């Protein structure tokens, strides 16, 4: 974990709701794992002191760049859209527990909306290790199917469903995923960005005795485990326990997550 200032290389919209930011990360001297996040100071520290947690979209070690894909939703992310190349962002990170890859079998990634940012980094790591990756992307509209092209370019098999087309309901998605599990020798399931899809992934992992992990989201104040603002409930050793999303997660074993 490191506190540092990073120069903005690029910051631009990719559609009406999502933006893509690239930072110079040459000062980072530690590994950044898929599923980890950084705590960003979005605007002026005096006007908006709270940070925003953003999962790593891509960390390119060779070019020393760090990328984030973010949904413009509140004051913090609106302030982020005003930052220009050459400006500096103050970050803390990398933080949290990231994903682990299975020793055998293909990966099945299930993402909705900005949840694809977290799983995109995992897909890249898996493809770098020559593992087969299948990604189901769910979104409101076709315009919100983020990174489908980029995932296909790295060799992932991408399947898309949208509310607009009427293909994203669980009654249609579940048999599609079950067919992939049967046909593609899936070894592990991963999900992020939707409670209903995460619950479906959890059910499928239990039914087919698959390993898996879920990336969870929470409002965070400190991001380092001190304030307990992001406390959640997990199931461990047959008991319900309190965990901190920022330090115990945000990635948890799929069977531990209690989905409300």
Automatic annotation (TrEMBL):
Keywords for the protein's UniProt record, in alphabetical order: 2Fe-2S, Electron transport, FAD, Flavoprotein, Iron, Iron-sulfur, Metal-binding, Transport
Keyword Transmembrane among UniProt keywords: no
Pfam family, one: DHODB_Fe-S_bind
Domain (FAD-binding FR-type) ranges: 1-101
GO MF annotations in UniProt: 2 iron, 2 sulfur cluster binding; flavin adenine dinucleotide binding; metal ion binding; oxidoreductase activity
CDD domains: DHOD_e_trans
Cofactor(s) it depends on: FAD; [2Fe-2S] cluster
Chain sites annotated for binding [2Fe-2S] cluster: 222, 227, 230, 246
Protein name: Dihydroorotate dehydrogenase B (NAD(+)), electron transfer subunit
Organism, scientific name: Sporolactobacillus terrae
Gene encoding the protein: pyrK_1
């Amino acid at each position: 974990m490191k506190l540092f200032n990073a120069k903005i290389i690029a910051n631009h919209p990719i559609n009406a709701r999502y933006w893509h930011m690239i930072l110079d990360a040459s000062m980072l001297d530690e590994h950044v794992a898929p599923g980890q996040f950084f705590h960003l100071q979005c605007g002026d520290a005096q006007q908006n002191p709270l940070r925003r947690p953003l999962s790593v979209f891509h960390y390119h070690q060779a070019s020393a760049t760090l990328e984030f894909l973010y949904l413009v939703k509140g004051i913090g992310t609106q302030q982020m859209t005003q930052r220009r190349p050459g400006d500096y962002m103050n970050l803390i990170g990398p933080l949290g527990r990231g994903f682990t890859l299975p020793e055998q079998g293909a990966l099945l990634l299930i993402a909705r909306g900005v949840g694809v940012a977290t799983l995109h980094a995992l897909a890249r790591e898996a493809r770098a290790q020559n593992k087969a990756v299948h990604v189901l992307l769910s979104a409101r509209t076709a315009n919100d199917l983020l990174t489908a092209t980029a995932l296909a370019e790295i060799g992932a098999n991408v399947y898309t469903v949208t509310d607009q087309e009427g293909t994203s309901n669980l009654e249609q998605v579940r048999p599609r995923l079950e067919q992939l599990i049967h046909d593609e020798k899936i070894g592990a399931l991963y999900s992020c960005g939707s409670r209903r899809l995460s619950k479906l992934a959890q059910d499928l992992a239990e039914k087919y005795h698959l390993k898996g992990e879920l990336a969870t989201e929470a409002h965070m104040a400190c991001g380092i485990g001190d304030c307990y603002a992001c406390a959640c409930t997990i199931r461990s050793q047959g008991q319900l326990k309190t965990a901190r999303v920022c330090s115990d997660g945000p990635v948890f074993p799929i069977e531990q997550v209690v989905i409300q």
